[in-house]
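Practice record 12: protein with manganese (III) ion.
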Amino acid sequence: MPFLLPELPYPPQALEPHIDTRTMEIHHGKHHAAYTNNLNAAIKDKPQENQSIEEILKNLDMSNMALRNNGGGYYNHCMFWEMMSPHGGGNPNGSLGEAIVRDFSSIDAFKEKFSQAAMGRFGSGWTWLCVHPGGKLEICSTPNQDNPLMPNTGCGGMPVIGLDVWEHAYYLLYQNRRADYISGFFNVINWEYALKRYNQFK
Ligand code: MN3
């Protein structure tokens, strides 16, 4: 079965004014669709054709650039749409909120450190909050469409939060103001989905 472009979990205008409609339409309907199509082309008649996306990424040959870029792009964006919600924002609850305070001293300190990592990613890439087995949290960043599932990226564990800092994610609304985009993301962040992932992978 080929991988399918998932539908957005909300209408493209639902995240206004923090993420604009046109960006959502292009980001999902063009960029994510292209990663999905190119991933399917890259695995056609290959052993990966019968593997889950997680298996493909965890066992990836990092020199296979078509699979690396498009497999990463497919997985990262599937998670990214869920990572935002028109009912998002605020602060994390439950075990994730407790773990963030434990590992970063406060929610505000976490947001500050995560934002710094997102600002510090030169060019295109992603910033992650990852959970390691046992529950320890880590903030890290990867270039392009790499992600923590892939071998030897400098990021480990499983993603709890992922923020796309490619210019295609924010340029129409924010132009070069990445810091404002990051603030906007925190206004729509879906902490319930992050909590679900934390509990799943801790
Ligand atoms: Mn993107």
